[in-house]
Amino acid sequence: PSHHPGVTLLSEPTLRTLRGRLLCPEQNNARFELVPDALIELDAHGLIQSVRAAPSDCRIPETHPGAVLLPGFIDTHIHFPQTRMLGSASGPLLQWLERSVFPEEARFAERAYAEQVAREFCDALIAQGTTCAAIFSSSHFDATDALFAELDRRGLRGLTGLTLMDRSAPAMLLQEPAAALEACSVLIDRWHGRDKNRLRFCVTPRFGLSCTPELLRGAARLAERHGLWIQTHLAENREELHATAAAFPASTDYLGVYEDHGLVGNHSLFAHCVWLSEGEWDRMARHDAVVAHCPDSNFFLNSGCMPLRQAIHRGIRVGLATDMGAGRTFSMRRVAASAYDAALILQAPVSPEALLWRATTGGAIALGLGAQVGRIAPGYEADLVALNVPAHVGPEGLFDALLFQHDAGPVRATYVRGQRLTPTHRSED
Ligand code: GUN
Ligand code: ZN
To answer: So where does this one cross the membrane (predicted)?
Structure first.
């Protein structure tokens, strides 16, 4: 039996050896080494002990025949309370927030509702092979506590925090700075660093427009005091840019709003970054700040295309992200396919292999987890995904098939620390 109640294990709790075709990411190049037949040995804690080619007389059966194993997907930006309104086509960003997002997020004031959706949310991550995510919760303490508890039950890796908002939304979603920061402190004590550091509290001001200067400064102090990551939205759409400039007349530009309140550094994660100026990109690089690239969301809300190749060339860490609810999928493969399209539109193509690397290893590095997850090497946590590959696909077509042939079947298996997870709480309605 599992020590995560409610999770069905399909194999021994401490699974010793996996055998199969492997995509082993390289650390510094956005590339994979293909190992046609490998053995991965795990220790009792779910850490990878060794990786080697299977000997010719190997008697261990292939774990997932026909599939390929790679590191679990890392979603660097996703919204838990938008699970049930995924795909709501109600306009560009600011209208979509008012019409679709805020009414749904208000339902998370009720703990039982949040608990139910937390189960659906974790099921959906597992079903798509995502083993780690940077997550926006709602603005409620209880909903965020319920999300942490569900991540913990499943053994998923997550950074999250309650979404900080004290203006420009329905009252149900707003909290005074002092109360919001106190709620954060309780959650930090309860969850930050839990499960051998797999759960982390992340300071999460929604964006400039939802926060007073006082709340932004309080958020920065909280992050500083506890050494926490900060996540927010930056330069997603032009209307938002103009509204932000009007709300913060003293700041030189959008990134400047966050700089002026102490929120920018090498533990700051900015979603979107579609409309940054050259000067802002320079400062992003200088701060060693991180980008969560959300191409599917950017298409759905007609926000624009983030210049991925430019950001990479500047040495900026960039992870891929669903941004689900504005993104229409939990699938990081689909997001990688959208990133491919967005790069084509900008006439700065990026290869499927590089995008798959960014959806896994690159995401781990972006979140400061490059020594724990995102690789298949000794000492790394065995957070892995097995993906179906059609039998006729040869090595030269492998990355194309993984990115673009979604019809070839669902994710075959998802592992966290060597334990296979299955979605167990299907929604009844
Ligand atoms: N900007 C502020 N809040 C949100 C959100 O929930 N989704 C997206 N895509 N952008 C935002
Ligand atoms: Zn978002």
So the answer is: none
